[in-house]
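During the second half of the funding period, the structural biology subgroup turned its attention to how the target accommodates small molecules. The most pressing case was pyridoxal-5'-phosphate, which had performed well in the primary screen but for which no bound structure existed. We therefore specified the complex as follows and requested a full 3D prediction, including the ligand pose.
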Amino acid sequence: NLDFHPSGRHFLQIPGPSPVPDRILRAMSLPTIDHRGPEFGALGRELLDKVRQVFKTQGPVVIYPASGTGAWEAALINTLSPGDSVLMYETGHFATLWQKMARRLGLEPEFIGLPGDEGWRHGVQAEMIEARLREDSEQRIKAVCVVHNETSTGVTSDIAAVRRAIDATGHPALLMVDTISGLASADYRHDEWGVDVTISGSQKGLMLPPGISFNALSDKAIDASRKAELPKSFWAWDEILEANRNGYWPYTPNTNLLYGLDESLNMLLTEGLDNVFARHQRWAAGVREAVKAWGLEIQCQDPAVYSPVLTGVVMPEGVDADTVRQLIYRRFDLSLGMGLGKAKGRMFRIGHLGDCNDLTLMATLSGCEMGLTMSGVPLASSGVEAAMRYFSEHAPAHASDA
Ligand code: PLP
């Protein structure tokens, strides 16, 4: 509970769900309409067309009324058969959960990655995937699965490099990529990077509440779905793609979230995706300046793959990150992400995605700095001052010169 009567606005700075802009809340508050009527069909056709621009694909994007986990399952069961080998790469907690799901579905996941804690501090090592595929002369591996933006650590992965690694071996495995927390915050290119199934969700860069998720499909993935033998019904692409032709779904879609998606796409495409990406990169750089000034460690060890979406802040030995996080919540009504899986208690995560601005992030960093000091964590210098300097000296890309 808060230490005070709640007033002002809650600061939701977890790496998703991210704050929902008022424009989207208003769009979602319109009356629910007949999902088989002509007005809905027109909306469906328009938004199925627009959503492809965000994935940077000419192909279809399937939209599910489900959280991201549902779209993970959909990707696997639409394309694979019982007992298939799947090469998955351990970047963190979410990669681990996806791997567990694959096993529960009756697949044979092989989980590779850097030893010890290193895997959770670096992006996917494409050469490890290449080496493993080269050994697979019988082509038993049917898919390679990687997470683009590992939300549990704040580390991204170079998906183009993974594609090149697969191509270098001539191996026919499908490439499946989870960009649940990367889409519409970090640069992502489904077609250009040769991804077969891209999985994403609504509650991060798209600035929507949780509740819709996506599979973007290549032709090769659609071909695979015609032969795949894992049981599927609700998640099956064929009936959805058929109904989507006219802007409908084979079941009741979540109409009001789709109003929100339409508004989100309008906002993102009007701003321009490159501006959206630049804005996130700049915020992430400002937040990292603060963490460095505090003298604390960033979870990601490779500057080339720092996440533009969130930053993992590692606590000094002996400090419980959850105690610090809870104090910050209670005193300042600011929610930060907890350490997940084997990072539990060792770090907290600052989300800097979606509907933020320099001042929301300055407030967030102030809350962190006060909370760290109140928790007795020794800080080398003021991160707030460092971030203020960064934000004032680095104008946003689209700032007017006036
Ligand atoms: N994958 C990643 C990278 C995520 O960040 C999340 C959720 O945060 C998931 C998968 C699971 O998605 P959901 O919680 O929407 O089911």
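Two results from this model are relevant to the next phase. The first helix runs from residue 22 to 28. The chain has a mean pLDDT of 97.
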